[in-house]
Structures are given as C-alpha cells and as structure tokens.
Amino acid sequence: MLWQDVVISITQVVMVLAVVPMLRKDAPRPSWDVALITSVALFTLAVTYATLLLLLSCFITFFMAIEWFVITTKAWHGGDRKLDTPSDPPY
User: Fold this and answer.
1) Can you tell me whether residue 79 is helix, strand or coil?
2) Using the 8-state DSSP alphabet, how is residue 26 labeled?
3) How far apart are CA 60 and CA 43, in angstroms?
4) Does the model's pTM come out above 0.85?
5) What average pLDDT does the segment 44-67 reach?
C-alpha cells in the first residue's frame, strides 16, 4: 500500500463524515445541480484512483460519490431547504 493511498483515504473519510449531517431529512443542502456535479467529479476521481491502484482511496471516494448522489436525489425531489438561499432579498 502506498503512503499516498493512506493520506488520501484518511482525508476522504473525514469528508464522508462531514457530509453525513446533510443526509438528514430536515438538513439544509446545496442545490441539486451542485450536488450532481460533485457526485460526477467524485466518480471520476474514484476511477482515476483505481487506475493508479490506489484501491482504498478508490473505494472510499466511490462511497462518497454515492453519498453525494443521495444528496442530489434528496435535493431534486422536493422542497428541501437550501444552504445558500437568503430568506429576504438584499434590496
């Protein structure tokens, strides 16, 4: 196992844990398009890690991509609160 695989994996585990609160029903989420772009980017990174034989990083990144895809579907399917939606217009 390469040391880079360990460092990337530890970082990804922290990121996975940081995103878990957004999976709650009443949690604010980013818009569906931002979540979808993040999910696709993470799937791309997972494939890239696999080609470099960074398998632990690949699996953790794949899990995080699935996590972001779940956030995408939750944001798409109904009136979720957004992270960056102001309550009042600025004017």
Assistant:
1) coil
2) T
3) 11
4) no
5) 95
Cβ partners under 8 Å of residue 74, min gap 6: 23, 29, 80
**Residue whose structure tokens are 């699996």:** 59
- Residue 13: C-alpha distances to residues 64, 76, 79 (Å): 9, 25, 29
Residue type present at position 57 = S
Q: Are 31 and 75 in contact (CB under 8 A)?
A: yes
- Long-range contacts of 54-59, Cβ-Cβ distance < 8 Å, separation of 24 or more: 54/2, 54/4, 54/5, 54/8, 55/5, 56/1, 56/5, 56/6, 56/9, 57/4, 57/5, 57/8, 57/9, 57/12
